[in-house]
Design a protein that fits this description.
alpha/beta, elongated, Alpha/beta knot, single chain, 7 strands
């Protein structure tokens, strides 16, 4: 959805609300109030569609609005049976046209104020419960076969691992993401930082969600904007 000025957003929200059931609208508001960009997820070179799709679904259910997908070697694919429509409500940013998509992703996240945290056993790692959330945090997960690339590890700001007590070396990556996000979400909600979206972000997301729900959204948007212009 194109970002409009506040006056136009207010007009569009007022118009489209008439087309959406009240219960649905209230659900939008409830969900948006629990959405965050303080935590975000990065996945690098996944090649099994069910794992990436499971992470999208987990992000949506945990209130994580943004997912960043790095495609250096493997193109991004999804499994619609696992997604069950969850990708409709999450913003997915793909990095696949730079010389080094991992570093490009890291660079853009740092410009937005994120600390890059690699999820991998490392000499400087900490346990998940000890990871500080004193600034915006991007959790990075490597692919199913080889984990994170050297660039993803070397250029990270911090490292975190999930404790285990079994013989198996590691959890499945989608399970790792679910464990991390559940614990950090709970920790974040007890943290005094402002983890929720600001009012402008909420308004933009509400408009976006509303247009994702109606039929022929582009035609509707065009007609509403034309009507606004004719009444100006």
């Amino acid at each position: 959805m194109t970002h409009f000025d506040r006056e136009t957003r207010q007009y569009l929200l007022g118009a489209i609300r008439e087309l959406i059931y009240e219960e649905r609208w209230e659900k939008f508001l409830d969900v948006i109030n629990q959405r965050t960009r303080y935590l975000t997820v990065v996945i690098e070179d996944f090649y099994q569609p069910h794992n990436g799709s499971a992470i999208i679904r987990t992000c949506e259910l945990m209130g994580i609005q943004d997912l960043h997908v790095i495609e250096n070697r493997n193109p991004w694919e999804i499994n619609k049976d696992i997604l069950v429509g969850s990708n409709k409500w999450v913003d997915i940013f793909r990095y696949n046209n730079a010389e080094n998509n991992t570093l490009n992703c890291y660079r853009k996240l740092r410009k937005k104020g994120y600390r890059i945290v690699a999820t991998s056993p490392h000499k400087d790692d900490c346990l998940l419960k000890d990871l500080p959330l004193d600034q915006k945090t991007a959790l990075v997960f490597g692919n199913e076969g080889h984990g994170l690339t050297p660039d993803a590890l070397d250029k990270a700001d911090a490292y975190v691992r999930i404790p285990s007590v079994g013989f198996t070396e590691s959890y499945n990556v989608s399970v790792s993401a679910a464990l991390c996000l559940y614990e950090l979400k709970e920790k974040l909600h007890q943290n005094p930082v402002s983890w929720q979206l600001d009012e402008e972000e909420k308004e933009i997301l509400l408009l976006d969600y509303a247009f994702r729900t109606v039929r022929n959204p582009q035609i509707l948007l065009k007609n509403l904007l034309a009507n606004k212009q004719s009444n100006a």
